[in-house]
Amino acid sequence: MVIEVRNLKTYFFSEIGIIKAVDGVDFSLPPKKILALVGESGCGKSVTALSLVRLIPIPPGKIIDGEAWFCGVNLLALPEEQLRDFRGNKIGVVFQDPMSALNPVFKIGDQISEGIIRHGKIGKTQAKECVIDLLSQVGISSPQRVYESYPHQLSGGMRQRVLIAMAVSCQPRMLIADEPTTALDVTVQAHILRLLKDMQEKNNLAILFITHDFRVVAEIADDVAVMYAGKVIEYASVNELFNSPLHPYTQALMNSIPGISASETKNLKAIPGSVPNLLDLPSGCAFHSRCSRALSLCRSEDPPFFRSGSRSVKCWLYLKENMSAG
Length: 326
Ligand code: SF4
Known about the structure:
The chain has helices at 45-52, 80-86, 98-101, 108-120, 124-137, 143-147, 156-168, 186-203, 214-220, 238-243, 248-255, 262-266; strands at 3-14, 17-29, 34-38, 61-70, 73-74, 91-94, 174-178, 206-211, 223-228, 231-237, 306-308, 311-313, 324-325. By secondary structure, it is α/β, with parallel strands linked by helices.
């Protein structure tokens, strides 16, 4: 495995109470695979990913428990100085909004070179050649011009390509892509997804891909972890998940995807209710007030994971099925 995350808990300590943004998350990511963390806004997927490289604001945030084993090293136990050697070097990050991720007062070339020089111990001239090569690898047709440009002189799609070039510049083993296509229009989105897939195959990357969009999941992921209220509630390969989603929340999310025909868009099935307040989570299964199949047990007891082969689901409906609890 490139990374194995065990019982990750990240809470935010606010004046009005404790927000359990990530509450006991487990997953693993094998080499050369793409794992999508998917769920509605506020379910904890971005906080999960950013906790791995400790990029959450501390305070009010705090990682209160868990382990994240990356190539034999527990990232959550590393001193900050040693973690810097992993962040941006062995683990690249692509953010949703490239405009806020890039520094507006520095040229693109200087921003990408900085990491290569710091982690690669090479000189400025060599770094420049390397950056121009990277810019052309991510599909920028005039890399020399972009090297000398400032972020505001580029389109949204170009800036996202620049961020991808920056994220892979130190040849990381893993990439965290946090909603990298959400702010882009559909055509540019397709190009960026293709580019990430190409980079993954070419550089043997493992990618943790955060998204709320199941169409993007279908396009890019090998495996999927569905999150709800700070927990993973279903884990499966992308084919298994799309062919037979097990958890009522996953099923409801799939049913709410708009189709193409007029009748499909007319009868959109929204999930009733809203995501629970993380400051005051309900007892039992956090989805019970929105679940059409809830049992009386669901209101009082939080379900464990039921596993069968590579699949697992956190729902009491599978108690009597041929799945083992764990
Ligand atoms: Fe619905 Fe109960 Fe399953 Fe939760 S545990 S998803 S409430 S059936």
